[in-house]
Design goal:
The protein contains ten helices and four strands, in the order H-E-H-H-E-H-H-E-H-E-H-H-H-H. The chain is α+β, with helices and mostly antiparallel strands. Helix 1 crosses helix 5. The longest helix is centred in the middle third of the chain and has 24 residues.
């Protein structure tokens, strides 16, 4: 049985191909994961072409594994297919809104995670690219995604050519709340983050970035407020471009006045 506690991200891959037979089997089996209303609000773009990988690479900050991996999978929130189905059946779809976007994103991430678990159990290596929503506009262009679809997650996939390392994780006390959410007091914060802050690699991380502690590295360097706002504005624009317009105000019924 696959030991999930030893899961590790893989960024270097052998030249050995991942067969379509295995890939299709994993994609189909993963589709048994949970889904909102049994609509399966996701699609996957499979990229094997070196040219398309090169076009995708800048959107993922030119991380080498995007080009080096045999397969790149872009998991997309997809209400286009459901909308087309409804229109062809004389139904009246109303999925160009924030709720539909959220539902499709949730479906997609559940499907993506199930696929990842199954792929790793088969001995494949993979790496989740969090850059997908940072540069969604560029990915939409390269993959020619239609309205009511949106890139949510990207996975590089192949047979491992490195062992990788098991990343540290916060203890259970950082995650579990009994009955209601319990605010984090100073002593609990200290208990939750002590082991992570004590890691030598994180101490070096703090020193290299000339900060006082690890939290400052995250707030000032890796995920700053300025960067978060810039990316949020771009994300909002990409959502609107793809037809997810958020809330629409219903016009008043002037006939009754």
């Amino acid at each position: 049985m696959y030991d999930f506690s030893q899961r590790r991200s893989i960024r270097r891959y052998k030249t050995q191909d991942v067969s379509d037979e295995l890939l299709n089997s994993l994609l189909m089996r993963a589709s048994q994961t949970q889904t909102m209303g049994n609509l399966q609000l996701y699609s996957v773009v499979v990229t094997r072409s070196d040219e398309i990988k090169r076009q995708l690479s800048p959107a993922h900050y030119n991380q080498p594994m995007v080009i080096q991996a045999p397969v790149v999978l872009t998991f997309c929130a997809d209400f286009r297919r459901t909308t087309d189905w409804a229109l062809q059946r004389n139904a009246n779809p109303g999925y160009d809104n924030l709720l539909s976007f959220q539902n499709a994103c949730t479906d997609t991430l559940l499907y993506c995670q199930t696929f990842c678990n199954m792929a790793e159990a088969e001995g494949l290596g993979l790496c989740f690219l969090g850059t997908t929503i940072y540069n969604s506009d560029a990915i939409i262009d390269v993959l020619q995604l239609p309205v009511l679809t949106f890139p949510v997650a990207t996975i590089t996939l192949g047979w491992p050519d490195e062992e990788g390392k098991v990343s540290d994780r916060l203890p259970l006390c950082a995650i579990r709340h009994d009955e209601v959410y319990h605010p984090f007091k100073a002593e609990r914060i200290n208990a939750c983050y002590a082991a992570r802050e004590a890691l030598e690699e994180n101490k070096r991380f703090v020193e290299e970035n000339h900060k006082d502690n690890l939290a400052q590295v995250f707030t000032d360097v890796r995920y700053s407020a300025e960067d978060n706002l810039t990316i949020s504005v771009a994300l909002d624009g990409a959502m609107r471009r793809q037809g997810f317009h958020g809330l629409k105000q219903k016009q008043p019924n002037t006939d009754a006045l």
